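User: I've been trying to design a sequence by hand for this structure and keep getting stuck. Would you show me what you'd pick, starting by listing the structure so we're on the same page?

Assistant: Good idea, let's start from the same input. This is the structure you sent:
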């Protein structure tokens, strides 16, 4: 059987781990990969489970690359001595291992975010990448997925054993890569992405499951989270474009209430694009006043080509004096409510719009950390406000993560508040 007369893509899955052989861990990765591959029109040739043993891994991969187009190897990518998959496969394919700066930086950032300090020497092994391997981003962990090509042309893909990490890589970068590499040999794929922000992945997934208890067939649904939000990706395979569109529309109808408060439309996936579009559509111009985000909102907006027709400018008002002298924030509100408060965020949004002759304003003030928190206003507390035509709305949130992630989340939340004010999903209350 084949699609459009071309031979089907054949795959072999190798799962690595003593615990799988001993029955201490049920091999859910192989089952999950089997379902996902089948739903993409890939023929699974066979599955092998092997021990954490150099010879066993080597002989399984050697045999697999002989007749499969795609060999997926999971497990044994970790930092401990029993994690040997990367070394064995690199050696088998004749690729030297080289420490990769980008991966090391990603590992450092994760350690830092989790407050775990310096990366231990043994963990640096995770940053060793076989020369020429393609890296696949791991949104839920440290070790990236790796793709290498064997001599006969088979692709060998290494994935972590942790199920959540494996799925995140597969549904993200690997999916894109498989479509790129084998597109003409796979059934047509229809993708539809809904961008959301402001709601955690777990809550969104629960609400979707409650609304669609029977699932989303014939579409499969993946949740793709990052620090700015969660994308929902619907994938339908093997149907015509019109049929697939019809199914997507029906699913979107069923999920309207769940998605409506959180969604935004942007071809690039960037909320700033949606904000600029909404301003342009309403003939409004924006000014921005930022404290803890230090210009990040402005950066997001000025990254967009053509931003000058909707963006007037901005002020980074870090010190209280600047908030009062340059922006015109009421000194009474500042001393009465404190610099991180709803009153100040509103004043910043209103005053920057007034003084820069814009219709709309954004104000952000908060404690990005790691120092500066109090029990009443811990690190991560951010007040942000949006103003439109002299009226405003403000919100407070306690964002998790390190300084960078608090700032990133705060900028995103402020942009989203303005978008909702512009499109009427939220009303000014002052
Ligand atoms: P880590 O970086 O965490 O060490 P790894 O790639 O080395 O990841 P393993 O050490 O093999 O992966 O496994 C990590 C965890 O994932 C273990 O708890 C293991 O039981 C689980 N796991 C590994 N392989 C599978 C599998 N095939 N199915 C289900 N769970 C698995």
């Amino acid at each position: 059987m084949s699609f459009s007369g071309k031979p089907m893509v054949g795959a072999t899955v190798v799962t690595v781990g003593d615990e799988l052989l001993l029955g201490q861990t049920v091999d859910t990765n192989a089952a999950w990969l089997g379902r996902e591959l089948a739903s993409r029109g890939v023929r699974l040739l066979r599955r092998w489970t092997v021990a954490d043993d150099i010879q066993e891994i080597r002989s399984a991969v050697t045999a697999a690359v002989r007749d499969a187009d795609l060999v997926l190897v999971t497990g044994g990518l970790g930092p401990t001595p029993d994690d040997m998959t990367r070394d064995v496969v690199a050696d088998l394919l004749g690729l030297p291992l080289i420490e990769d700066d980008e991966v090391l930086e990603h590992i450092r950032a994760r350690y830092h975010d989790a407050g775990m300090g310096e990366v231990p020497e043994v963990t640096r092994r995770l940053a060793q990448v076989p020369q020429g391997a393609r890296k696949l981003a791991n949104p839920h962990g440290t070790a990236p997925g790796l793709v290498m090509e064997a001599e006969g042309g088979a692709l060998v893909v290494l994935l972590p054993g942790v199920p959540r990490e494996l799925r995140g890589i597969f549904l993200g970068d690997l999916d894109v890569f498989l479509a790129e590499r084998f597109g003409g040999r796979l059934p047509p794929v229809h993708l539809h992405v809904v961008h959301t922000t402001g709601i955690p992945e777990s809550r969104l997934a629960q609400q979707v499951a409650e609304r669609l208890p029977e699932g989303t067939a014939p579409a499969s649904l993946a949740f793709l989270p990052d620090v700015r939000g969660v994308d929902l990706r619907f994938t339908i395979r093997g149907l015509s474009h019109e049929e697939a569109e019809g199914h997507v529309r029906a699913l979107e109808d069923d999920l309207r209430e769940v998605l409506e408060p959180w969604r935004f439309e942007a071809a690039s996936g960037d909320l700033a694009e949606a904000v600029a579009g909404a301003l342009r559509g309403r003939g409004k111009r924006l000014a921005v006043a930022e404290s803890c985000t230090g210009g990040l909102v402005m950066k997001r907006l000025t990254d967009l080509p053509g931003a000058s027709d909707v963006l007037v400018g901005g002020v980074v008002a870090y010190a209280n004096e600047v908030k009062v002298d340059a922006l015109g924030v009421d000194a009474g509100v500042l001393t009465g409510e404190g610099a991180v408060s709803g009153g100040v965020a509103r004043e910043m949004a209103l005053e920057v719009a007034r003084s820069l002759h814009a219709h709309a304003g954004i104000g952000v003030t908060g404690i990005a950390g790691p120092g500066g928190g109090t029990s009443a206003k811990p690190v991560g507390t951010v007040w942000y406000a949006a103003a439109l035509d002299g009226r405003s709305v403000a919100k407070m949130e306690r964002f998790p993560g390190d300084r960078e992630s608090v700032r990133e989340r705060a900028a995103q939340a402020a942009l989203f508040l303005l978008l909702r004010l512009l499109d009427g999903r939220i009303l000014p209350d002052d």
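That's my pick for every position. To get oriented when you compare it with your attempt: The mean pLDDT is 94. The longest strand covers residues 229-237.
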